[in-house]
Amino acid sequence: MENIRDIISAHNPKAFSAADSTGEVENEILASTSEIPDLFFDDILISFKLTRVEIIMLMYFYRLTWCKPNLHRKYGIAPIVSHSELAKNLDIAMDTLHSTVRRLEAFGFIETIRSGQYFVRKYFTEDLDKKYGQSYDNFL
User: Fold this and answer.
1) How many Å from the N-terminal Cα to the C-terminal Cα in the chain?
2) Which of 20, 53, 54, 65 is most buried as measured by Cβ atoms within 10 A of its Cβ?
3) How far, in Å, are 20, 60, 72, 81, 117 from residue 130 at the CA level?
4) Which domains does the chain have, with CATH numbers?
């Protein structure tokens, strides 16, 4: 049986470039992150029986409203330019998109202001908004 020291000493580490030693790498792609409240995982997913498409669409609306630069963030408004573009981005049929929006509205997570604009609750339900002190300016 070989000694571990002999194995390690025989191992040649990979060569590092100058870029590696400075910590800079050309064309490095960094993963982005979005902040989702823990109560989504601890409360909403348990209390509401959401389908996969409902979760995807809710996360899309939430991310667009609260996690990305948004002029209407203060009001909780998601700016959706095109339903067909949204359906394409989420890889769902248009009728599925419309029925999912209606279901999310029935749960109280979102509210249609007008076509292409949706009010998206920061804490997903009115009770949780009140509990965590989230209020919105009157947008209607």
Assistant:
1) 77
2) 65
3) 49, 23, 20, 30, 23
4) 38-131 (1.10.10.10)
